[in-house]
Specification:
Layout lengths: L24 E5 L6 H8 L11 E2 L2 E2 L5 H5 L2 E5 L9 H6 L9 H10 L3 H6 L20 H12 L7 E5 L7 H16 L9 E5 L3 H4 L4 E6 L2 E6 L1 H7 L2 H12 L2
Parallel strand pairs: 1-6, 1-7, 4-5, 5-6
Antiparallel strand pairs: 2-3, 7-8
């Protein structure tokens, strides 16, 4: 599969061939401009490949109705929207039919590690967010990001969960703990018992090392693919970047 944005001939992704196994947590890493977010958006059918196909259980994704496919997706992105609604609705919009389902919203908040945010709000989930409202409360960028992440966790059984740097405003320890807990829940047969594929994009290698498979993008192509241990043993791009980042935290 290859992709170039309309009006350009430069391939953002070139001859990308990947197998994303059911039930797996897949991390995508690479330098800025390597095509990580573009690949995620192709999987969400926000774009269509310039050449090649994306297959879902052997069926060309292009043949699947867009609305039907997206109804089976969930996710959170770094360029999230700040919905100035009640905290409950801002999270609940992640699954519109259950937007006012308080137990479902609380579950999503817990999955995202955003309980601390809600507890700090004067009226909890009923707090009006946003300074545009007379009684609206402004929260920090990091708090908005946690609420957006909770919104991405509203659906209980998505076929594909995409997390495209949704915790960039959080400290590395918080992000690491969050995704460690999420990965453990999947492997214990909890949230991922339906064969969900989870795709995680992050610049923090301490986080992505927990993935079942790590895909390294470099120069629009897949440079490496494997587990953390396999890629470290290979001594390639991933191993070099991991060691550089680990040394920065010492």
């Amino acid at each position: 599969m290859s992709f170039a944005y309309p009006g350009t001939e430069r391939l953002v992704l070139e001859d990308v061939s990947l197998d994303l196994p059911a039930g797996a947590v897949v991390a995508i890493v690479g330098e800025n401009g390597a095509g990580k977010s573009t690949l995620v958006k192709l999987l969400c059918k926000l774009y269509v490949p310039t050449s090649g196909t994306i297959l879902v259980d052997g069926v060309d994704l292009a043949r699947l109705p867009s609305d039907g496919w997206r109804a089976r997706l969930a996710g959170a992105f770094q360029d999230f929207f700040r919905f100035e609604l009640s905290a409950r609705q801002s999270v609940g919009l992640g699954d519109v039919p259950r937007v006012d389902d308080v137990p479902a919203v609380r579950t999503a908040v817990d999955r995202a590690g955003a309980t601390d945010v809600v507890e700090r709000l004067a009226a909890g989930l009923d707090t009006q967010l946003g300074p545009a409202w007379p009684d609206g409360v402004e929260v920090s960028f990091g708090q908005w990001q946690k609420l957006a992440l909770a919104r991405g966790f509203m659906r209980d059984e998505p076929l594909l969960l995409v997390l495209d740097e949704p915790t960039a405003a959080l400290d590395p320890q918080t992000e690491h703990a969050l995704f460690q807990r999420y990965g453990a829940a999947l492997r214990d047969g909890g949230a991922g018992a339906n064969g969900r594929i989870s795709v995680l994009v992050s610049h923090r290698f301490s986080t992505v090392r927990m993935a079942d498979r790590i895909v390294v993008l470099d120069g629009a192509r897949v440079a490496e693919s494997g587990s953390h241990d396999e890629l470290m043993a290979a001594g390639g791009t991933y191993a070099e970047l991991y060691r550089i980042q680990a040394a920065a935290y010492r």
